[in-house]
Amino acid sequence: MSKRVLVPSVVGVVVLGGVAAGGLAMAYGATEPTVANGSARYVAPSDGRAGTLTFTAEVSDDSGVRGLKVVAWPVSSKLGPTEDDLRKDVDGAVCRSVSAERARCTYTLKVSQAEAAELSRGSWHVSALATAKDGGTAFVSRAAVFDVTG
Q: Mean pLDDT in each 10-residue stretch from start to end of the chain (150 residues)?
């Protein structure tokens, strides 16, 4: 085989291999959503006004953010909700886009005086399940912690 035929053939294989590898990288390069900067705050009811539990987090994904499901649970209960638990009938946060790939999600729950009286006192965790527009999910078992007092 002459050198003129061999060199272009080798270059062609390298170029085609690079294109194929790039295509695979793009196909498998999709990222899972992330949940960052989670914070929770509980305010007890007072003076006839309802209390609130508020959880806020930044959610991002390269395909965009579809939603965020949230559940709060007392540490003393040792419940530890799972990703499957959050896929069921769980409250969702309100997510507002701040860019094509990022949203600020806020979950607010009103707490009546009667409900507050039955809450376990002490530390609570918030678990969160983020869902991206491409269907990817990210589960955070302990996205935030807060205290219920009084």
A: 43 39 48 96 94 98 97 93 93 97 97 95 97 97 93
In sequence order, the 6+-apart residues with CB closer than 8 A to the CB of 138 are: 32, 33, 34, 35, 129, 130
3-state secondary structure of 118: helix
90-129 burial string, b = 16+ CB within 10 Å, else e? Answer: eeebebeeeeebbbbbebeeebeeeebeebeeeebbbbbb
DSSP state of 128: E
Q: Side chain identity at 147, as an amino acid letter? A: D
Alpha helices in the chain (DSSP H): 3-28, 83-87, 113-118
Long-range residue pairs from 3-12, CB within 8 A, at least 24 positions apart, any chain: none
Strand ranges inside 13-80, DSSP E: 34-43, 51-60, 65-74
> Does residue 94 sit in helix, strand or coil?
strand
The pTM (predicted TM-score) of the whole model is 0.79
Residue among 66, 76, 83 nearest 127 (CA): 83
